């Protein structure tokens, strides 16, 4: 801590020469304000509680500005994902199906062409909510099931979707839900010959944020550093 103590091995601490010299000044207390005078404390960014007796303790780590921004960004993104999921849940099921297909287009399916997606009719979807071409040429089709549910999706629902794929003679499908999938659902998919991808609410919002579906950029900050190559005088 600020070069005043050292730890030769785990759970063992001893005072350094610098620490001994500092104690000779008979400080009334040792806190962050006092320790700021030591360069090693400033560099390591450690926060220390007021000492009692002769003991020294290192407590909470103080983040650097870069780390604070990273922490802040993570918090903002987490809150955004939660807000986005709640917004999705408030939409009607048919609009949710459109959201799902918009995301798949952004992911590159259908050659990123809006014309290569199709939402099936509500009255006769036969267990299929949407269809999208795998590529721009439409060499294969991917069938989509979108469930705006609160309860977890079970293996039974996946089995129904797999049956719908068989009716269409399809081998690829994507099942997306605002909730989550049960262990049984994941196990069922792993044993199938057909390829079905499961996307739960958490992954859905992560993908929507990453590919800018239903979200927009609020603010952009540029973090710059000194260009050392520019100052190369050789």
UniProtKB/TrEMBL annotation:
SUPFAM superfamilies, per the entry = Restriction endonuclease-like
- Residues spanning the membrane: none
A Gene Ontology biological process noted in the UniProt record is: DNA restriction-modification system
Print the keywords alphabetically.
Endonuclease, Hydrolase, Nuclease
Name the Gene3D superfamilies on file: 3.40.1350.10
Q: What InterPro entries does its record include?
A: Restrct_endonuc-II-like (IPR011335), Restrct_endonuc_IV_Mrr (IPR007560), tRNA_endonuc-like_dom_sf (IPR011856), Type_IV_Methyl-Rstrct_Enzyme (IPR052906)
Show where the Restriction endonuclease type IV Mrr domain sits. 88-208
Top-level taxon of the source organism: Bacteria
* Gene Ontology terms, MF aspect: DNA binding; restriction endodeoxyribonuclease activity
User: What is the name of the protein in this document?
Assistant: Restriction endonuclease
Q: Which organism is it from?
A: Leptospira interrogans str. 2002000626
């Amino acid at each position: 801590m600020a070069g005043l103590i050292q730890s030769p091995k785990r759970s063992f601490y001893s005072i350094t020469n610098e620490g001994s010299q500092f104690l000779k000044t008979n400080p009334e207390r040792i806190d962050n304000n006092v320790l700021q005078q030591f360069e090693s404390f400033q560099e390591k960014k450690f926060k220390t509680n007021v000492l009692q007796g002769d003991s020294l303790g290192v407590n909470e780590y103080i983040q650097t500005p870069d780390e604070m921004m990273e922490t802040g960004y993570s918090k903002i993104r987490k809150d955004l994902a939660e807000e986005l999921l709640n917004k999705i849940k408030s939409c009607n099921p048919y609009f949710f199906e459109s959201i799902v297909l918009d995301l798949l287009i952004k992911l590159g399916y259908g050659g990123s062409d809006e014309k290569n997606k199709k939402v099936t009719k509500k009255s006769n979807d036969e267990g299929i909510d949407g269809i999208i071409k795998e590529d721009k040429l439409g060499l294969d089709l991917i069938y989509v099931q979108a469930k705006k549910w609160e309860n977890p999706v079970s293996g039974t629902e996946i089995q129904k979707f797999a049956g719908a794929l068989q009716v269409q003679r399809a081998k690829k499908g994507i099942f997306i839900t605002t909730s989550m999938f049960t262990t049984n659902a994941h196990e069922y998919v792993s044993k199938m010959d057909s390829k079905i991808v499961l996307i739960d609410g958490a992954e859905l919002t992560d993908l929507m944020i990453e590919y800018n579906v239903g979200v927009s950029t609020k603010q952009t900050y540029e973090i710059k550093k000194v260009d050392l190559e520019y100052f190369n005088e050789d």
